[in-house]
Amino acid sequence: MQFIETFQLHDFLDTLVSLLSAFVLGTLIGAERQYRQRSAGLRTNVLVCLGAAAFVDLANRIDGADGAVRVIAYVVSGIGFLGAGAIMKEGMNVRGLNTAATLWASAAVGSCAGADMVAQSAALTLFVLAGNTLLRPLVNAIDRIPLNERTSEATYEISITTDSKRAGQARDFLNERLEAASYPVRDTRIVFHSNDNVEVAAVLVPLAVEPDDLDGVVADLSKMPGISHATWHVSALE
Predict the structure, then answer these.
(1) pLDDT value for 155
(2) Quick one: 89 exposed, middle or buried, by C-beta within 10 A (0-12, 13-18, 19+)?
(3) Is residue 202 part of a domain?
(4) Which pLDDT score, from 0 to 100, does residue 90 have?
(5) Which of 19, 45, 144, 167 has minimal CB crowding within 10 Å?
(6) Where residue 211 falls among pLDDT bands split at 50, 70, 90?
(7) What is the pLDDT of residues 157-204, one digit of tens each?
(8) Which of 76, 65, 102 is nearest to 87 (CA)?
(9) Are residues 184 and 99 in the same domain?
């Protein structure tokens, strides 16, 4: 058998060290993700890390450093397809970006292990864990800071409630009033509700606004016959 002729214990042990390192380090990253109930948890991160290590090690055995470099380039781009599957959009919100980024980092850890850079892969694992754990208090502190509408670019939405017969007229008036206030509209939609009531919502182009201006727009809209409610709210950019 060719296996008997080509098998070398030293190379096998070297590969075993790479795969074992990828398994252990992927487990550390995945355990943290599993603890926080992310969609890509323990097994997914371990398999990504192991797969990257196996491909890089295989290329290194067959074609040396040049082959490993080419495979690493494909791992970097290929893992993006897996990460895209973890990203979901729910209305104005996007979920899964951190999960996708962690999978990408797990592939980097595995690539380092597959390239026999075990110390570097261990160091990278520590930084990934630090990014997902130690930075959480800082993220929470920043999120608690009130949004300054005058200096921050965000997504603003103005909504009015009217009856279905006046939906078109209300939408035209809403667009005209916003244009008069020099606030360009990115999109306008009509949401139908029960009892013949509809909600007309206009999403502004992301920019910084003067809250008093939007308050004035809402006040004018509220005075329009047939409009029972008008309001505006702000959300962070996607």
Answers:
(1) 76
(2) exposed
(3) yes
(4) 55
(5) 144
(6) confident
(7) 888 888 877 777 888 888 888 888 888 888 888 777 666 788 888 888
(8) 102
(9) no
How many angstroms separate the CA atoms of 75 and 50, rounded?
A: 12
Q: Please give the structure tokens belonging to residue 1.
A: 């058998």
Q: Give yes or no: residues 45 and 103 share one domain.
A: yes
- How far is Cα 85 from Cα 99, in angstroms, rounded to an integer? 10
On whether both 23 and 139 belong to a single domain, the answer is yes
The answer as to whether 148 is a domain residue is no
H or E element: which one contains 192? Answer: strand 185-192
> Helix, strand or coil for residue 188?
strand
Query: Are 161 and 153 in contact, with CB atoms under 8 Å apart?
Result: no
Give phi and psi for 183, each to the nearest 5: -120, 105
- The answer for residues whose C-beta is within 8 angstroms of residue 170's C-beta and 6 or more apart is 160, 162, 200, 224, 226, 227
In terms of domains, do 65 and 20 share one? yes
Token code pair at residue 210: 């003067």
Asked if 78 and 116 sit in the same domain, the reply is yes
Q: What is the mean pLDDT of residues 39-65?
A: 90
